[in-house]
């Protein structure tokens, strides 16, 4: 805004303004409230009758509990050209209109710049950016030939709030019935029987062989002995009544 203009700022919340105070930060002051060397408080409002470049800064409302509102930036210039821009942040998807004007006219051709880079020239001094996004946020200024350049003005873009759709009721899941267990397959039973026999038969055969070997070894160790008696014989050398009994012991081996 131009030097010498007046401004009135007010704090309101849900049609109630009780307990809110206007504060600002400038190049020389920090968190000073209305009436503390600047402005005239009127309830929750603050009136500044004559703006000067030193009034340029960030303004916001603050409650007794410490809650704060969105901040706005006010730029006061003593030059011939100003750039009018929204004082509140622009929401994504909305249109942004910037106006380059002098103290006497707002319809002169003007060139617009963002962050020091030239955008384009508008013949009537108005530039509109449709469907802004976060990339459009930045520092803007304008230039009117043969008149002058405006001070830079910061434009903020806020994210569009996300809308949540109500939950949709899903149809109930169809009932599932458990199928009866399949009947036993005869072929499957035969295969299981064969497997058991294949596993069990070698065990039986090996057990039988071990028992047979053990019995054969026990029989071979007991050697039977038999005694055979031979009848007495008389000696040819005249021994009529005496005789010797010869006992023959034979050993019988069984294989």
Automatic annotation (TrEMBL):
Q: Name the InterPro entries on file.
A: Ig-like_dom (IPR007110), Ig-like_dom_sf (IPR036179), Ig-like_fold (IPR013783), Ig_Fc_receptor (IPR050488), Ig_sub (IPR003599), Ig_sub2 (IPR003598)
Q: Recorded GO terms, molecular function?
A: transmembrane signaling receptor activity
Question: Which GO cellular component terms, listed alphabetically, does the Swiss-Prot or TrEMBL entry include?
Answer: external side of plasma membrane
Name the PANTHER family for this protein: FC RECEPTOR-LIKE PROTEIN 4, IMMUNOGLOBULIN FC RECEPTOR
SUPFAM superfamilies given in the database record: Immunoglobulin
Asked if the Swiss-Prot or TrEMBL record annotates the protein with the keyword Membrane, the reply is yes
Q: Which GO terms describe its biological process?
A: cell surface receptor signaling pathway; immune response
Q: Which domain of life is it from?
A: Eukaryota
Q: What is this protein called?
A: Ig-like domain-containing protein
The chain positions of domain Ig-like read: 1-77, 80-158
**Gene3D superfamilies documented for this protein:** Immunoglobulins
- Region (Disordered) residue ranges read 149-182
- Segments passing through the bilayer: 193-214
Keyword list (alphabetical) reads: Disulfide bond, Membrane, Signal, Transmembrane, Transmembrane helix
Report biased composition (Pro residues) as residue ranges: 168-182
| PROSITE patterns in the cross-refs | IG_LIKE (PS50835)
